[in-house]
């Protein structure tokens, strides 16, 4: 009994430390809002002030020279890539790769002509459809599926490439409806997110708030469109369960996930011509304006001692919900 009491006391001490850890991070180096930079800093300065301390920022005048800023609109896309087939994520509710009930549900990946997607986005077609369309396929879909557009942007961000000493792993193209929402998650990339037109609304949570961000395991499944116009959820057979965040930051269930009330999300809007630096391991939830166009660059993170510490924090964080 005495040994059990000591162990219980040790666990409670760890829980107290986990609650204190994010507060100290905010006091030491995190800001209460996402700061703006008037222009890109030098590679060394960017690494020292933003990458190394793992802090986000929004950068102005980072890609003013891209032809995409003046060229990319529906008329241009119809002329240059209208007949091209692209991969589009299709869902009944706008949530691709998200928790739905007791499942982690991925979108139906549909091949369709770019012009057909534009019809939906512009309201020319698909009216009344119980479906939401979003070009969100990653793994360098800009280069792999739309090479005709690559001359309108850069293949990498020179100052970021110099700062990190590597080229991006992927350059991704994003276009879709306002109803398309990216659920809360994190990536193992240093992310430069460039909005070409429209705007994106981000909710960001720092990695140090991991003790307050719940994860649960879910059976993976995929949306499948039926002939009658409805969707069904089809389980992936013999698939391992997927760990995912069940909290919707727009309407969190604090009765079920009380620790989440201690998280301190940052809210920011990235407008046309602006670049968001989203550091690796930051949790993020994303919404967008109708027809918003964006390109992002994923640079692989360094798996160094910071990652090692985060893995330790992640392992301990389950104690707060136990």
UniProtKB/TrEMBL annotation:
UniProt-annotated location(s): Cytoplasm; Nucleus
Record-linked SUPFAM superfamilies: Clavaminate synthase-like
One Pfam family named in its UniProt record: Cupin_8
Cofactor: Fe(2+)
UniProt KW keywords: Cytoplasm, Disulfide bond, Hydrolase, Iron, Metal-binding, Nucleus, Oxidoreductase
Boundaries of every JmjC domain copy: 135-314
Top EC class for this record: oxidoreductase
UniProt-listed SMART domains: JmjC (SM00558)
Main location: cytoplasm
PROSITE patterns: JMJC (PS51184)
Keyword Protease carried by entry: no
GO CC terms: cytoplasm; nucleus
Catalytic activity, EC: 1.14.11.63
Gene Ontology terms for molecular function: hydrolase activity; metal ion binding; peptidyl-lysine 3-dioxygenase activity
InterPro entries named in the record: Cupin_8 (IPR041667), JmjC_dom (IPR003347), RmlC-like_jellyroll (IPR014710)
Subunit structure as annotated in this protein's UniProt entry: Homodimer; disulfide-linked. Interacts with DRG1 and DRG2.
Function text: Bifunctional enzyme that acts both as an endopeptidase and 2-oxoglutarate-dependent monooxygenase. Endopeptidase that cleaves histones N-terminal tails at the carboxyl side of methylated arginine or lysine residues, to generate 'tailless nucleosomes', which may trigger transcription elongation. Preferentially recognizes and cleaves monomethylated and dimethylated arginine residues of histones H2, H3 and H4. After initial cleavage, continues to digest histones tails via its aminopeptidase activity. Additionally, may play a role in protein biosynthesis by modifying the translation machinery.
Name assigned to this protein: Bifunctional peptidase and (3S)-lysyl hydroxylase JMJD7
Native source species: Denticeps clupeoides
Gene: JMJD7
């Amino acid at each position: 009994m005495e040994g059990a009491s000591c162990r219980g006391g040790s666990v409670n001490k760890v829980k107290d430390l986990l609650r204190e850890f994010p507060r100290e991070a905010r006091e030491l180096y995190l800001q209460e809002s996402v700061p703006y930079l008037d222009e890109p800093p030098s590679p060394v300065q960017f690494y020292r002030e933003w990458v190394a301390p793992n802090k986000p920022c929004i950068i102005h005048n980072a890609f003013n020279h891209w032809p995409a800023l003046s060229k990319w609109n529906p008329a241009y896309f119809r002329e240059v890539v209208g007949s091209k087939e692209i991969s589009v994520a299709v869902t009944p509710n706008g949530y691709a790769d998200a928790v739905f009930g007791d499942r982690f549900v991925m979108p139906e990946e549909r091949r369709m002509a770019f012009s057909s997607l534009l019809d939906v986005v512009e309201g020319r077609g698909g009216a009344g459809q119980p479906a939401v369309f979003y070009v969100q396929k990653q793994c360098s879909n800009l280069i792999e599926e739309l090479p005709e557009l690559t001359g309108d942007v850069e293949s990498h961000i020179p100052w970021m490439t110099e700062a990190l000493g590597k080229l991006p792993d992927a350059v991704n193209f994003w276009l879709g409806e306002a109803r398309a929402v990216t659920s809360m998650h994190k990536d193992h990339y240093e992310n430069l997110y460039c909005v070409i037109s429209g705007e994106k609304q981000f909710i960001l949570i720092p990695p140090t708030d991991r003790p307050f961000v719940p994860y649960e395991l879910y059976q993976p499944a995929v949306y499948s469109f039926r002939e009658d116009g409805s969707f069904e959820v089809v389980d992936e057979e013999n698939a391992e369960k997927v760990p995912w965040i069940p909290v919707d930051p727009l309407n969190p269930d604090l009765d079920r996930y009380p620790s989440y009330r201690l998280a301190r999300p940052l809210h920011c809007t990235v407008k046309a011509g602006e670049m968001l630096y989203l550091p690796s391991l930051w949790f993020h939830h994303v919404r967008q304006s109708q027809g918003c166009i964006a390109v992002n660059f994923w640079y692989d993170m360094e798996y160094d001692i910071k990652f090692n510490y985060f893995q330790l924090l992640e392992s301990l964080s389950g104690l707060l919900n136990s």
